[in-house]
Amino acid sequence: MTTEASTPTTPAPAAAEGGTLRAERVSAWFGTRKVLEDVNLEMGAGAVTALIGPSGCGKSTFLRTLNRMHEIIPGASLAGSVLLDGDDIYGGTLRVTQVRRRVGMVFQKPNPFPAMSIADNVAAGLRLTGTRATDRDGLIEDSLRRAGLWNEVRNRLRAPAGGLSGGQQQRLCIARSLTVRPEVLLMDEPCSALDPTSTRRIEETIGELRSQVTIIIVTHNMQQAQRVSQRCAFFLAAEDQPGRVVESGPTERLFGDPEDPRTADYVHGRFG
Amino acid sequence: MAPSTAVPEAGPERRKIETRLTRGDRLYRSLATAAAAVTLALIVLIGVFLLIRAMPALREAGWSFITVKEWRPDGQQPRFGVSAMLFGTFVTALVAMAVTFPVSVATAIFINEYAPRRIKQTLTSLIDLMAAIPSLIFAIWGLFFLIPLLLPIEQWAVDELGGSLPFMRAAAIGASLFNAGLVISLMTIPIATSIIREVLSQTPRHECEGALALGATRWGMIRTVVLPFGRGGIVGGSMLGLGRALGETLAATLILSVTFEIKPRVLENGGITVASAIAVQFKDAQTMGLSALMAAGLALFAVTFVINMLAALVVSRSRSGAGVEA
Amino acid sequence: MTTQPIAAPRPAPRRRTRTGAGADLAEFAGAAVTSFAITWLIFARLMPFTVQAVGFAVCWYGLFLLAYWLITRDGHGPVIAADRVMGVLITTGALAAVTPILGVIGYVIYKGAPVLRLNFFTETLAVTGPLSAATEGGAMHSIIGTLEQLGVATLISVPLGVLTAVYLNEVRGPLTRPTRLVADAMTALPSIVAGLFVYSILILQFGWGFSGFAGSLALAVLMLPTVTITAEQVLRVVPGGLREASLALGAPQWRTVLMVVLPTARAGLSTAVILGMARVVGETAPMILTAFGSSTLNANVFSGQQDDLPLFVYNQVSSSQDTQVQRAWAGALVLLALVLVLFVLARLLGRPRTARVRRPAPKPATEPAAKPRQERTPR
Lengths: 272, 326, 379
Prior knowledge:
Chain A has a domain at 21-110 and 184-267: P-loop containing nucleotide triphosphate hydrolases (Rossmann fold), CATH 3.40.50. Helix content of chain A is 33%, strand content 24%. Chain A has helices spanning 59-65, 96-102, 118-129, 136-146, 150-153, 166-179, 196-209, 222-228, 251-256, 261-267; strands spanning 21-30, 33-43, 48-52, 76-84, 87-88, 103-106, 184-188, 214-218, 231-236, 244-250. In chain A, helix 3 runs parallel beside helix 6, helix 4 crosses helix 6 (166-179) and helix 6 (166-179) packs parallel to helix 7. A two-stranded antiparallel sheet of chain B has the order 2-3. In chain B, helix 11 runs antiparallel to helix 12. Chain B has helices at residues 23-61, 64-67, 83-114, 117-132, 135-161, 177-200, 205-213, 218-229, 231-247, 250-255, 274-281, 287-317, and strands at 14-15, 71-72, 79-80. Chain B has one domain: Orthogonal Bundle (MetI-like fold), CATH 1.10.3720. Chain B is built from twelve helices and three strands; from the N terminus they run E-H-H-E-E-H-H-H-H-H-H-H-H-H-H. Chain B is flat, with a radius of gyration of 27 Å. In chain B, 69% of the residues lie in helices and 2% in strands. Classes of the chains: A alpha/beta, B mainly alpha, C mainly alpha. Chains in contact: A-B, A-C, B-C. At the B-C interface, helix 1, helix 3, helix 4, helix 5 and helix 6 of B face helix 2, helix 3, helix 4, helix 5 and helix 6 of C. Chain C: It is a multi-pass membrane protein. Chain C: It holds the Pfam family BPD_transp_1.
């Protein structure tokens, strides 16, 4: 596996693939409880955007509004709009399943399908969306390479997915998400359940994927946010208040010279 | 972006999220809903069809359906009623529960608290196997093995106690309501034991340990912690067993010598239950007879349904049953 | 000069904790012997009737309890005495539950094995009369009937039951609570009422006449609630994260259920099916009203009276001919064997697989603990 010798703050190469997500005045509720207030954020192509802040501030909830997974929870509702390359994903033009295909997600706890082999897991997205693939094996290899897992599993593609270690399972889930060729990839604290070595590998993978897919990552780990992201958004919720974005911008600025004193307090570890 | 320090103005209204289901999803949901509707429709159909078929007999007999004990529905002067059957069902179920209740509670406690770890799983599997054995096989075993074994004792009881206790008298013994009830208990024991065992195993361990730490004996702990906790589940499990006992057909059919009488002498030959009456009278029944049997079946259905609902209610309301699938 | 390594002290031997003492055994034995002696006295000398096995045992047991209680109370006090006696009573109760199972299986083998010959599986009762030997004739027509009726019943009830479970756990529409309540109530439906129902709707209303299919319908009515409830429990155990992962990939709900949830639950669902089958394979009462039985082979399950194993045993055992009763035991043995096979099959299928999804842990992966399975007891 190649290691990319680049710092996270290097600007992305000019021809960046990946889609643009823009959140406009997004608020979210669980029943009557408001958990997110008026979030405006632009997450552009070729960059990794990190959502940081103490736990319980609505970062994960916001992430789930970006691929319409928020509404699965009974009683959940939202306000505002989320634009994927200009189209409101909550409008009538795009189907839910299409949105979720274009905006992929990797979860905190790796969840490979236990009833399928490694190869079938990677290709699961094709079966599940009813997409016909002309070169299934080639797609599987490509996704595994992009996720940085190919060399470790190339000889046991038929083995059950449950036999992999935690870090490998998470990279398998990344590969699985990549197979359907999303424009955006959402990652909800993908490394929090993993050991440091697996974490480092996944951070490397994120760096390699950056130019192909727009990545938005929720993380608790400030050092990880600095390592991995080019832009950051700092979420904060006062007591009994919905979460808000306090400040957002280039990662270097947020960590080096934040405008808001609360941001400064957080990034210097004075709370959270 | 500048940090927001000003009070934000009222944001956009909550929107109704439109989820246009795919055609596949619409079909899937319809199919699943239809399947669930079948279960609901089934119980309604059972009630309705039995009622329709039972109407002629009910109209013919009126309220005497419950009080009359003879069974002559096909004839010049139809005279029939379920009182003998209800009595027989009641007595056999009572005998069955009198045996089942202590045995199933004891077995459940034994498996949970007394059995060495290695045989616990074996015992549980054995009880599950007992539940799977068809009632027909228990019935013939009872008829050919168990009852002949018990006959001498029953004879002794009749001889010794028949003088002083009128209900212990018997002209002939063996094919009695008591023996039928005894065999039925074999079928209700595994059900009740399984449920009670599962309920009692939910007793919070820290409460048990609290009792033991005070120096209580094993029985002391069971008496003061486990049994009070499991009260609802024990009642519920027993009631589910009772429901099974009420509907049991084979034991009564094979063991009882059929007489349509109300028989307080439980050890004496003769008697009838609702279920066995249907099984026995079916072949020779004509129109009115069939209708009367339908009415009897309807009565049985209603009673077992009510008891089962009550049992589920008791179990779910109790502290022990709340987390357990009955 | 070489230094002698100091011998490591021998590790302290592991102790087995004992709650009782040796004297307890003596008390138990003493009570047993005393009560035996007194019972013998009562039965042989004082009472004018013959020693009688069961009565003797009952009397001995009662006196033993009394003696044991008195001895223990004298030695250790009433609390310990109560504990000991209750221990005996509880163990007796468990034995009372377990002995019949073993007794039944043993007796059926004892009575059925001598009569069971190969022709049992190849002949029917068409040519046997009341005077034929017990080993003549067979139950081939009944076995075929059972297999056909069970097959049709399974084909009807399993898709319905699994779909209903999917509705209850995945779709969760407005019918969920009533359906669950009704399914629970239906598990207690008396089997004869199911037979009455099918009789009234199929044979009376539609005028189709007795058939194996009518029997299968009755069996399906009895199987459906069991399959539904067990299947729902199995689906509930499937982790929600898998459904989320599938939806996040862009799958519609039906593909999620079909390609992720159901395959993951495959083992548990198979167990549910087999338990449902085991429950109904021995049902007799509803078959009296629907399939009606016969002594000849009828391989068409959809028309004409058809026999099956439970009806075979029931009819033969009800006859006054000894040979027919003997033949019934052979049938009972085959039926029992069938139930045992299904039961063992269900147990084997329900066993958790060894290669499961491991927890993502920093340590090298160790053998994962097996997930406990909740199984519904068939009735």
